[in-house]
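Work package 3, deliverable 3.1, input record:
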Amino acid sequence: MTMGEAAVSVPSDEDLLVAVRGGRVDSLGILVARWEGPLYRFVSRLVDRPEDARDVCQETFLRVLKKSDAFRDGARFSTWMYQIALNLCRDRARRQKRWGQLVVAGHSDDDRPREHAAPERADTHPDRALEREEARSAVQAALGRLPHDQREVLLLKEYEGLKFREIAEVLGVPESTVKSRMYAALDAMKVSLQAAGVG
Amino acid sequence: MSCERWQEAILGKLYAELEPEEDRALTSHLEACGACVASLEDLRRVRVSLRENEPEVPRLPRVMVLRDAPRLRPALLAASLATAALLAGAGAGAGYALGRQGTRAEKTVPIVGSSSAATLDPATEALIRQEVASRLDALRASAQPDAAAAIPAGVTKDEFQTALTKLERRMETNRAADFGYMMGEIEASEVRTGARIGQTNQALRYVALASNPNVSER
């Protein structure tokens, strides 16, 4: 390999994980930098509070580090990572059910999104800005009403852009099950959004 | 409502994941089925709404610190289980053995609540010793994880031991995770309380400044 080739080659996620497995912990830093945004976006829509999302993300990367040996050759890093995060979210949900929540989710000004959010539009007119805010709230509320298994599929497909085959791998279910959950989720969203006057 | 057998294909079309052959078949079906056409259009509109009104995401913590959760080590758990079993055994004989002074060969047994020591005849002491020993043995046997009686039929001792070790590990992991969860809850509570106090203080400062005639908005 020439110097020129070395300069332009970008290691894949899987290459970085192999490096992590070989003791190159700094490679994990690159993986974190690449994936913390998408992972945080996904997790924060599955759990109730930003603190929980932060904890799940931390724990996910920690497990990636600890269990890098368990990564199957030929698998995709992102699929594996989402799988870990999803299991952590489910564990957390079970614990919440058992122990309850000490702190109820609420939004202060500090929690308002500034990064990794949907792109801001130039809705400078107060009416349009209000409309958009209401539409977003309606989408968020409709997502929250979806059964958990449908919400997982919809988030992975619509906002994380995974293929149906990859989602099936993350969830450990047949692709046909993923599609039927997705269809049901979109159908339920259609009803909820129509009722809220969106779309 | 679309035809159920075409729902998967409609989704494939919606997300551009159809093989050319499937695409052709669906296109041909759509030419004849108004319900499926309507369904595809409906779902397209839902997708547009979802994209245009993507829910906001809370701000990502600027520094994501990797921290290890406190965990109990398996060895520590095994040691504590062994100690618990020993203590249970010891506890059963406590009525007899506690307060016993000197070596086992001594013939005096202190009586609880009495400052004087009573002397037992050798036959009674032998009986008590026998009773204590048999109860201790029974307790030890019941506390032994690999006691033959506890192993179900058709399971080898090794398999049983492995299963027991796995169970212990799972219990330990669950306990550590529960502990971590509760600590996280407390931490979250502290953070939110701190933030609320900060906001309240700030609001109070504004109120105080607003009521001061010598302070301008600048």
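Chain A touches chain B through 65 residues (CB under 8 Å).
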